[in-house]
What does this fold into?
Amino acid sequence: MKLSEIYKKGFENQCFVLLVDAYNTSLSEKIIQLNWEENDISQELYEKIDADPQRLKWNITPFREFYLPQNIKKEKGFANKLSRIDLRMSTISGNLEYKYFCEAKRLKKADSKLKRGYINEGMDRFIFKKYPMGCMLGYVLEGDIDGTLKGINSLLEKDGRNIETLEQKSCKLLKDYFESHHAEIGTLKHMFFNFGTI
It folds into this structure.
């Protein structure tokens, strides 16, 4: 494995630590409300990441609602058409900058529309390379994670995407960590944050 790949993997792990720490802090402080919008939750996690002293030690800068450049004609209003991703973290090593992107979606066990949005406006944007390297964040607001996960996988299977279902994997940082595999991009990582316990 190349040195740059080792560094990239280490950077991703540091991003995971910052995300999980922000989630755990928000749970302990009981700040997040179940009626909040996705951007409200992302803003709270961003603030926790930004205040985390580890990010300074690791030289990581967080951004929220980051606009992704696209190859579109630059005419009046073009910036409003750019895709946005919920969170971005970046670091610079030597003359290289590494970026990690997180797309977040609200989820409820009994809400198929939110689960469909997780697939179509989340996963698919990574799979079709609209978003670069990163992970999915599932903000579970009602119901258990197992039931929510079954619902997402059921929709994928209904679409004939059986090989793309989410599988739980071992992660020492977070119990509710999953991966899905896709021909186009390989592995997509998923972190589920259960706010329904607040």
Remarks:
- Helices lie at 3-29, 38-51, 53-57, 112-127, 145-158.
- Residues 3-29 form the longest helix (27 residues).
